[in-house]
Design goal:
Length: 178
Amino acid sequence: MDAGKEALSSLLGNKREPTLREQIEEATSSGEGCFSLTYEERVIGFLGCVGSGMFLNCFSVIRIGQLLLGNPVPFAVCFTIGNLLSMGSMCFLVGPARQCKNMLQPGRAGATILYVAMMLCTLLVAFSSALTHIERVVLILICIALQMIALAWYCLSYVPFGRRFLTSAVCSYCFGRE
């Protein structure tokens, strides 16, 4: 689009949203974000973090036996680091400042705060010596469940009408309304 059409479009309020690639390239040229990585390096970093995070989350499932037998630390640490890697992967694409800004937008802040708080609680409970084995297991499982719920709620904020659809479906299921 030439400059005249862009100016007319912006006067009429018809701004088009920049693509993810354009946002990444803008962040790179303006000096914010992940220093001076190329687009391809950012995608590789993103995929590496997401892949590592998913691997650690899957690997933590193997460690559920240790959790149930009284050693919750390997499971909790593996699961939490996997989540941190996955959550931080977007920093490669949009930069840490923009990622934090996106996570703390009014519609996402609650889910983000709950997600991070439950990751911290998972670790605190795992390393706590003041709790019995059963208390630690139950609290860790509750923290993990709340992490997953918060993550799903956060992800649905990016899907148009995603939260509304889920809320409607759950209410319909629970109250038998069609």
